[in-house]
Predict the structure.
Amino acid sequence: MAENKVIDACNTFCPGPLMELITYMKQASVGDTLELLSTDEGSAADVPEWIHKVGHEVVSNEKIDGIWHIKVRKTK
Amino acid sequence: MKILIVGGGTGGTILANNLARRLGSEIRSGKIELTLLSASDRHMYQPGLLYVAFGQMTPDQLYRDEASLLEPEVDFRVDPVEKFQLDQNQVVTKSGRSYSYDILVIATGSRIVPEEVPGLSEGAETFYTEESAVRLHKRLMEFQGGTVAMVVSIPHKCPVAPVEAMFMLHDFFKSRGIRDKVTLRYQYPTNRVHATANVARWAKPEFDKAGIEYETLFNLKSVDPVNKIVYSEEGTEVKYDLLIAVPPHRGMEVVEQNQLTQGGWIPTDRFKLTMNGRDNVYVIGDATNIPVSKTGSAAHFESEVLSANIVSRIKTGASNPVREYDGKVYCFIEAGFDRATYNAFDYVNLPDLKPPSKSIHWFKVAYNQMYWTSVRGLL
């Protein structure tokens, strides 16, 4: 059964939100959804760029109360 | 009151010394027992491994006897923990002995797991163990020309190490007079040459100046050691003559086997440093899942926060922490053999890199010796 996991990477710079997401993506199963929380403005563009290149799926990407909520699904 | 620290690396050793100094009279009077359990009687200065790879340090310079680094009030035992029985407030060690505690600190660190990437162990050199750093040095000395490729797997210890290694490779081959015969290729997982934007902003033009080629969004998938090709999750590949890898890391086997981890790391409150769901169990250093760098520096600052909180808890009965870990990290970044800068940040303040200088490099060289003062909790 697919899982949904929230990764709180707010206020982190090194290694930073995208690295956190990649780390958890390696551990996830196909079909799992990961929601990255980030206060880094760059994440809104950086995460979709990687997700598209590697071939996973961006489910949603929105800023709520100053925090980016970027939901992605592992597809392979 | 029994305080038990598991792990004799940077975090565990600094914490033990800080507590011994602040609680000396209580320990001597028998009110407090302070025990440090470690898997080894030796302590390694791990950042020195990079210098071993480039022939600038020898392995013997990286070690001290752990007992020689500890205050006499610390009851130090080389007896690795095998079972964490947190519901009973005790651990069981390899010798079969049980150690009960009122406060437990887990500082077990991390390990490399190159076996998680097919072909990596056979096809790549690294510098994350003594043996591998020595072997890499020999390979670098024998290298006569071709492509040296760096690949980075995550998560890994010391986020700036791959950048430092590239600059040192550039200077190493320059000093051997064969830089023009060597192509340096750097592959990195995120869409910049470093995950931290300000580090990337500094490193990219430095790479360009040094003629270091780079490919971003390259997440290591596998290595073909026969044909000398490394493949990425993103579908690209790189041919190499010498492959240097930053291997993936995980928490130590003992914490995984005791099911304390999620994805290899122990879930930890990023401010209080308590293990999630446990008020009397703390976690510091690489073992945590806190989203900060896995470095001795983070372990150092965490141990200072934790020692203040444990001392306050004992001396005043305060149940709330007097300090929170603010995410502070300070790391030197070697920009070659004679220049360096540094990366300093916390949960709020971004790193703001200064131009590399010789003085910072020499400060780092001095710190390679000053570490032994630092780990005693004196610096």
